[in-house]
Amino acid sequence: QVQLVESGGGLVQAGGSLRLSCAASGIIFGINTWGWHRQAPGKQRELVAGITEGGTTSYADSVKGRFTISRGNAKNLSFLEISSLKPEDTAVYYCNVKGVRSGSGLPYDYWGQGTQVTISS
What we know:
The chain is mostly beta strands.
């Protein structure tokens, strides 16, 4: 059973930057995709960035050019660099990893507890 823990959130002024981290309790095996989602008060949770096993990245239009997703050299780490921050970026940010297990072929979908990011104007 894999556990994910996000960190790096906090209060930052508009125009500032943060680096969010996600650490898994162990190495994630099998073909997988890492993602970062966010949920603002009164809003639906949305996918903001994703990265595949092969390193292909994708971003929501609202964050393109400002956010960067990456994976650590260790396969149990994911990062989201968020820059040129706006008040509308305020949300709880969640780490996610999903994929298919080697051998069994069973799917998995793990989530962290979230980290709060608040942008002041």
